[in-house]
Amino acid sequence: MDERFARHDTGPHHPERPERTESVRARIEQSGLAARTVAFEVEPASDEMLEAVHDPSYVRHVARACAAGEPVLDSMDTAIGPDSERIARLAAGSVAALALAVADGRLDAGFAAVRPPGHHAERAKAMGFCLYNNVAVAAEHVRRRTGLSRVLIVDWDVHHGNGTQHLFEESPDVFYFSVHQSPLYPGTGARTERGRGAGEGTTLNCPVPPGAGDTEFLGALADELVPAADRFEPELVLVSAGFDAHAADPLAQLRVTTEAYAEATRIVRGIAARHAGGRLVSVLEGGYDTDALSASVEAHLRELVDPTGSD
Ligand SMILES: [Zn+2]
């Protein structure tokens, strides 16, 4: 968490606003969790890191649009300000650096409270509040810089992570799992989308209907993710941790409780413990009710830092 993530200015009425990371930062301080964690120095992603998943021309396009003072990027959803490219680069870079620190054993696990979020960003297109695909940049960075190759990305944001799925759908080494509301933006993520070519079978989508709650949300993780992950045997687990499936969230219609995020965390920690030496990095995606968001992040982090539940 870094106060600079509040400098990505999306304008006065945008749901993806600076108060999001500020509320998370305040909650981590007030809850005493800050004292039980190590603050991690954030750093911007290099062109090379971004271009491992994004087209070079897209990276230049983002920089140009922000420098020119344009109000949106590629669609009306993705509001930008003059500092947005710099902050998006910082978000992707810090997630990648954190994932590398966990991958090579300098840290046990990590959480990156960044914005803008990333999972909708495609190879050459901004979408849905996302400029660079933070979790994808991190996965590729670790795969290129370490001996680890098999990465599991668990995306429990209420929206389907179209960008992440598309970036890895042909890769047998990166497993993409998503539980999300359907129908909902962006409209992708049907059960029939299971990967392509060599990546057939390493994409798993679990859409749930509007009105679904903890039973369906946690059921997808326990009954569908866990057996698939146990077969895949990941060496690193990354979580696209959006908290907009929460009942209080204004952008979707699921009824997930704060407590469910603690249970969800235990499930992914179990996977990381069984296969990946505990290596787990969680990355903030959505979550637009700041009270629900900060409370859910606290529940998530309490389980991440808990040294007793190591199974
Ligand atoms: Zn979302």
Give the topology.
Elements: H1 19-30, H2 47-51, H3 56-67, E1 72-73, E2 75-79, H4 84-103, E3 109-112, H5 134-145, E4 151-155, H6 162-168, E5 174-181, E6 203-208, H7 214-232, E7 236-241, H8 258-275, E8 280-284, H9 290-305
Parallel strand pairs: 3-8, 4-5, 4-7, 5-6, 7-8
Antiparallel strand pairs: 1-2
This protein binds zinc ion.
Account of the 3D structure:
- The protein is an alpha/beta fold and 311 residues long.
- It contains 9 helices and 8 strands.
- The protein has helices spanning 19-30, 47-51, 56-67, 84-103, 134-145, 162-168, 214-232, 258-275, 290-305, and strands at 72-73, 75-79, 109-112, 151-155, 174-181, 203-208, 236-241, 280-284.
- The chain has a 6-stranded parallel sheet, sandwiched between helices. Strands 1-2 form a two-stranded antiparallel ribbon.
- Helix 6 (162-168) links the parallel strand 4 and strand 5.
- The longest helix has 20 residues, at 84-103.
- Zinc ion binds at residues 157-159, 242, 244, 285-286.
